[in-house]
Amino acid sequence: MRHKIKLLSLVVSSGLLLMISCQSASSDNRDRIRVSGEGKIRIMPDQVTLTINTAFTKPRMVDAVRETQNTVDSVIAILGKYGNKKEDIKTSSVSANKDYQFIGNTNKFVGYQAQQTIDFVLHDLSKFTELTGRLLETKISGIGSISFDHSKADSILREADLIAYDDALKSAQKLASRADVKIGKLLFLSNDGSASNESTGYRTGMALETFNKAYGGEGFKIAPEVLEFKRTIYTEFEIK
């Protein structure tokens, strides 16, 4: 019984020490300075993502699915010549539903629609016009979006982090100099809450509809805009 009492006393004492330690940490009243910094990197894109839509409406569901799948197969065969099938081509599963159109004052059943979407990343922008020309030869229903980006976006954002930190440090040093004080060690650092954690990828406003008709001729010519990668860093320094 005596041993049990001693053990209980030890546990209670440890709890008191923990509470005192936490209170001491939370009552840190050291003078500090809080500043934020911004890092921006502007660079031309080196890749483009196309969202290709394929959809057919037929009286019979089986015919709609077959037509959609045949068109998707022909598109993938073309895309395979411009990129890696496993890494650059992503297809959604075929979805099939009843198709209604607003005719007169009511929605009327017009058949069964099957549709599928293909996302493709083109890494050689010089092939863009040629590729879109080839796609227009198929019976796709349209190109939903064209989005330019950079293949090294993650590395560029990390560089923007460093630029943002340097900017914050310079601001802290200038403010401290004006206040006739000196900054000490770094107490807090975060890029949480950044105004832009991702690149402002350039997306065209184009949404091409081909109405499942194959068109020959030349593809699109688009001059992408410069991309801007931006990060915001928040810091807190001790004031000596």
TrEMBL record:
Annotated Pfam families: SIMPL
UniProt record, GO biological process: DNA damage response
Keywords, alphabetical: Signal
InterPro entries: 26kDa_periplasmic_antigen, SIMPL/DUF541
Domain of life, per lineage: Bacteria
Coiled-coil stretches noted in the UniProt entry, renumbered to this chain: none
Signal peptide interval: 1-25
Identification of the protein by name: SIMPL domain-containing protein
Species of origin: Sphingobacterium athyrii
